[in-house]
Amino acid sequence: MTQLPLRAQLASALGRTAATLSRATGRGDGSVIGGRIGLALEPDLLSQLARDRRLALVSATNGKTTTTRLITSALQELGDVATNAFGANMPAGHVSALASAKDAPYGVLEVDEKYLPAVIDATGAGVIALMNLSRDQMDRAGEIWLLAQKWRRALAGKNTHVIANADDPLVAWGASTAARVTWVAAGQPWKEDSWCCPECGGPLDRKGVDYTPPGGHVAGAAPLAMVPRPVEDDWACRECSFRRPQPSWFLDDDAVIDPRGQRWVLDLQLPGRANRANAAIALATAEAFGLPVQAALPRLREVRSVAGRYTTVERDGRRARLLLAKNPAGWLEAFDVLDRSLPVILSVNAQGPDGRDTSWLWDVDYRVLRGRPVFVTGERMLDLALRLDVANVPFQLVASFEQALAAQPPGKVDVIANYTAFQQIRAEFDRAV
Amino acid sequence: MQSDSILRLVWIYPDLLSTYGDQGNVLILEQRAQRRGIPVQTIHVRSADPVPESGDIYLIGGGEDRPQILAAERLRRDGGLNRAVARGATLLAVCAGYQIMGSTFGGEEGQPVQGIGLLDIASGRGAGRAVGELAGEADPALGIPMLTGFENHMGVTRLGPGVRPLARTAVGTGNGDGTEGCYAGKTVGTYLHGPALARNPGLADLLLTWAVGAQLPPIDDSWYDRLRQERLTAVLPQQA
């Protein structure tokens, strides 16, 4: 459907060829090399490939890949969707994703937080979903307040519909310059990066009150008349007027309440609170494309694992569920998913993509692991060993993931690994998806 | 210790300066005191609250430019930390917190921002960011082994005659002139960011010794030692 100028057509075709070669030769999944070649030949290629499509961009510190997958799954109800499903979230990956689905009328692109302003400019995307911002790989990613400020500048004056998490003060600040924002109360368990007002630096006052819905939960998609809104996790600056915007969508325990007050039990296959929050954002984003919850939610329920996340791999009767956690907020959400009755294997590396600095281990509260068998491995196992020792969490050090798995009795075990440690485990199991 | 029963740790402004696992230093001091039978009370002071003057060891960590400027303003207005140090309290200041202890430091655009003057140092912004492993021989007068850690900052710090360098750098940037950090009295400043004490239990014990006013019995340091050895082996030039 996209009519590209000749030069762009050529750039796009050569890029696809390179991607095919990359896959055929086993050098990669082809999602970056093809885009790089295309962009080198035609710097404007991303803009041209984005033209005449309805695009959603998805950005956050955590949950980008999963939320991209959830929104893609929903929009497939409407038609073909171009997407960078394997997390190649910089412009080369976007070019590759759009070029390989030239006729798809829809696109859902995961975008690295730092690249978001450039990708907004290049694509003119009509919808942008923003979930959370927290400390992450500070040795190379830089400062998140500055990042939010760049989001503000990029969104100001654009005709874009932003779907944003009202419970994360830094996201609320970063999104609030947009012409139109749909606010979602998606929660924020990790609060250590938002005790101060992003607008003026004053203290943020927070109140979180547990909400118990009256009566039981109604299964499936059956709407409830006038469900009272949850008393939410409110916040406001003590010194200036910046405060939590009024949400129209709410994550309410295992359900989402839509702007009409209807409560939808999510019943996802993906585990954990973080994925329910991602689903709330995905449902609001789908509605921005005209897709009602009733049609979108069954699609979200079909998603079982995302690029290896939450998948279960098996060896010699040991079934290991793989959880990815790259930073303190991610570990907090991963702990929420753990089965309390199971042993857990933790694997930590500090290669380039992980951040070479392991300081963040000290921001994770590992005490929740007390009382279950804990196995520690990975290239930086000693950093984690000392951290657990100081937290009084008993553990066993194991030389490799294979040995950790072999040390388990047959049955289930949970695994939490950071980025390259996770990819190493996936590689062991033929890039499990 | 002020009170002869409890060691009081005061963590200053975790809401502003706690970006790189700075909590680690608090946890390590707690652990190393408790394993010697010293009861510990830890006080987290948010930036809207006054800094209590009755603490034994004060800790302040690292953070982004804007929180650093806010922290310096609030500490200056509050005055509690200056009074506590004048009274003889021990202080560990890390990275952004280290720079705040001087006369000036570089703000968001490199503009000079006034510090709180607890150390005779002045900092500015360097040309590039110093990111990576840092190792250096500690000042022999301190009697502690080689320092090891990670740095991530743009600061260049000039030491005045009122302080001594904490270490001579073997790997990494530190203050920018071949030295790393500094100390004066019972105040230590360092660019070893975040959980600096995790790889330097000797420095942790030095702070505890200053605060308690007595030598401490040894404890099991095997996890600390293994981590130190691994990191030093990884970053120091190989010796034959």
TrEMBL record, chain A:
Q: Which UniProt keywords apply?
A: ATP-binding, Cell shape, Cell wall biogenesis/degradation, Ligase, Metal-binding, Nucleotide-binding, Peptidoglycan synthesis, Zinc
InterPro entries for the chain? Lipid_II_synth_MurT (IPR043703), Mur-like_cat_sf (IPR036565), Mur_ligase_cen (IPR013221), MurT_C (IPR013564)
Which catalytic reaction applies to this protein? beta-D-GlcNAc-(1->4)-Mur2Ac(oyl-L-Ala-gamma-D-O-P-Glu-L-Lys-D-Ala-D-Ala)-di-trans,octa-cis-undecaprenyl diphosphate + NH4(+) = beta-D-GlcNAc-(1->4)-Mur2Ac(oyl-L-Ala-D-isoglutaminyl-L-Lys-D-Ala-D-Ala)-di-trans,octa-cis-undecaprenyl diphosphate + phosphate + H(+); beta-D-GlcNAc-(1->4)-Mur2Ac(oyl-L-Ala-gamma-D-Glu-L-Lys-D-Ala-D-Ala)-di-trans,octa-cis-undecaprenyl diphosphate + L-glutamine + ATP + H2O = beta-D-GlcNAc-(1->4)-Mur2Ac(oyl-L-Ala-D-isoglutaminyl-L-Lys-D-Ala-D-Ala)-di-trans,octa-cis-undecaprenyl diphosphate + L-glutamate + ADP + phosphate + H(+); beta-D-GlcNAc-(1->4)-Mur2Ac(oyl-L-Ala-gamma-D-Glu-L-Lys-D-Ala-D-Ala)-di-trans,octa-cis-undecaprenyl diphosphate + ATP = beta-D-GlcNAc-(1->4)-Mur2Ac(oyl-L-Ala-gamma-D-O-P-Glu-L-Lys-D-Ala-D-Ala)-di-trans,octa-cis-undecaprenyl diphosphate + ADP
Boundaries of each Lipid II isoglutaminyl synthase (glutamine-hydrolyzing) subunit MurT C-terminal domain copy? Answer: 324-422
State the EC number(s): 6.3.5.13
UniProt binding sites for Zn(2+): 197, 200, 237, 240
* Free-text function comment from the UniProt entry: The lipid II isoglutaminyl synthase complex catalyzes the formation of alpha-D-isoglutamine in the cell wall lipid II stem peptide. The MurT subunit catalyzes the ATP-dependent amidation of D-glutamate residue of lipid II, converting it to an isoglutamine residue.
Assembly and partners are described as: Forms a heterodimer with GatD.
Protein name, per record = Lipid II isoglutaminyl synthase (glutamine-hydrolyzing) subunit MurT
UniProtKB/TrEMBL annotation, chain B:
Q: Which pathway is this protein assigned to?
A: Cell wall biogenesis; peptidoglycan biosynthesis
What EC number(s) are associated with this protein in UniProt? Answer: 6.3.5.13, 3.5.1.2
The record's keywords, sorted A to Z, are: Cell shape, Cell wall biogenesis/degradation, Glutamine amidotransferase, Hydrolase, Ligase, Peptidoglycan synthesis
Question: What's an example GO BP annotation here?
Answer: cell wall organization
Residue positions annotated to bind substrate are: 129
The CobB/CobQ-like glutamine amidotransferase domain is annotated at: 9-200
Task: Give the matching InterPro entries.
Answer: Class_I_gatase-like, CobQ_GATase1, GATase_3, Lipid_II_synth_GatD
A Pfam family hit: GATase_3
Q: Give the annotated active site.
A: 95, 193
Q: Which residues cross the membrane?
A: none
Q: What is catalyzed by this enzyme?
A: L-glutamine + H2O = L-glutamate + NH4(+); beta-D-GlcNAc-(1->4)-Mur2Ac(oyl-L-Ala-gamma-D-Glu-L-Lys-D-Ala-D-Ala)-di-trans,octa-cis-undecaprenyl diphosphate + L-glutamine + ATP + H2O = beta-D-GlcNAc-(1->4)-Mur2Ac(oyl-L-Ala-D-isoglutaminyl-L-Lys-D-Ala-D-Ala)-di-trans,octa-cis-undecaprenyl diphosphate + L-glutamate + ADP + phosphate + H(+)
Gene Ontology terms for molecular function: carbon-nitrogen ligase activity on lipid II; glutaminase activity
Which superkingdom heads the taxonomic lineage of this protein's source?
A: Bacteria
Q: How does it assemble?
A: Forms a heterodimer with MurT.
What does this gene product do? The lipid II isoglutaminyl synthase complex catalyzes the formation of alpha-D-isoglutamine in the cell wall lipid II stem peptide. The GatD subunit catalyzes the hydrolysis of glutamine to glutamate and ammonia. The resulting ammonia molecule is channeled to the active site of MurT.
Similarity comment text for this entry:
Belongs to the CobB/CobQ family. GatD subfamily.
* HAMAP family found in the cross-reference section: Lipid_II_synth_GatD
Query: What is the protein's name according to its record?
Result: Lipid II isoglutaminyl synthase (glutamine-hydrolyzing) subunit GatD
